[in-house]
Design a protein that fits this description.
Elements (H helix, E strand, L loop, with lengths): L2 E5 L5 H15 L6 H7 L4 H13 L6 E7 L2 E9 L4 E7 L8 H15 L4 E7 L3 H6 L3 E9 L5 E10 L4
Antiparallel strand pairs: 1-2, 2-3, 3-4, 5-7, 6-7
Helix pairs in contact: 1-3
Bound molecules: coenzyme A.
Coenzyme A (COA) binds next to helix 1, strand 4, helix 4, strand 5 and helix 5.
């Protein structure tokens, strides 16, 4: 079993959206009601893939997106926005879960943040991923609610990790 993490390219968009859909609907589904899951990861996949292709091609925020391959197949992705000191995403498809893929993505993103002299990474964690981030040194700043476009609110945990520079 080989895990590699690399920068995302446009043709990864489909696998990225599939991983997001699987992670939300098959993993986070234990912590959130279906109305929240449907808004967090909607089923209009082709529209979302096209949008993600444009995001990978270039985005004004400078979001850096990486993908993880497990034995040559893209099974997860993650991103940071260095200017905002933000860890924006880590998602791994359910079938590839608990094999260290999430850890590999997180470590890769942290090393990018370090290279770019980002002093800390902040994130809005799902309830599902809190334990995962805590294990990797992220501390809870506060617990809150993330407001979705519909006005529905989902529980989230604001977390932070200092990025150590030598
Ligand atoms: C949270 C998430 C990214 C973790 O991804 P993952 O690839 O399963 O992460 P890892 O495999 O690195 O670690 C997960 C667990 O598997 C365990 N694990 C890691 N490698 C393992 C291995 N080789 N064998 C067995 N278990 C292993 C880890 O100890 C870890 O346990 P823990 O949760 O008790 O810390 C993924 O579950 C996910 O996408 N969740 C739903 C979406 C979500 O909420 N994303 C975050 C949005 S903020």
């Amino acid at each position: 079993m080989t895990i590699t993490v690399r920068d995302a390219v446009v043709k990864d968009a489909e696998a990225i959206v599939q991983a997001h859909y699987s992670a939300v609907h098959q993993i986070a589904s234990k912590d959130y009601p279906v109305e929240i899951l449907n808004e967090w990861s909607p089923s209009n996949l082709s529209e979302r893939i096209a949008k993600f292709e444009r995001l990978i091609e270039g985005n004004s925020e400078g979001e850096i997106i990486v993908v993880a391959e497990l034995d040559g197949k893209v099974v997860g992705f993650g991103s940071i926005v260095p200017d905002k000191k933000e860890l924006r995403a880590v998602y791994v498809s359910a079938a590839a879960g608990a094999k260290g893929v999430g850890k590999a993505i997180l470590e890769h993103l942290e090393s990018k943040a370090k290279e770019l002299n980002v002093p800390e990474l902040n994130l809005d964690s799902s309830v599902t991923a809190e334990h995962f981030y805590a294990r990797h040194g992220y501390e809870v700043i506060r617990r809150g609610l993330h407001r979705l476009n519909s006005g529905r609110q989902m529980a989230c945990i604001f977390m932070r990790k200092e990025i150590k520079h030598d």
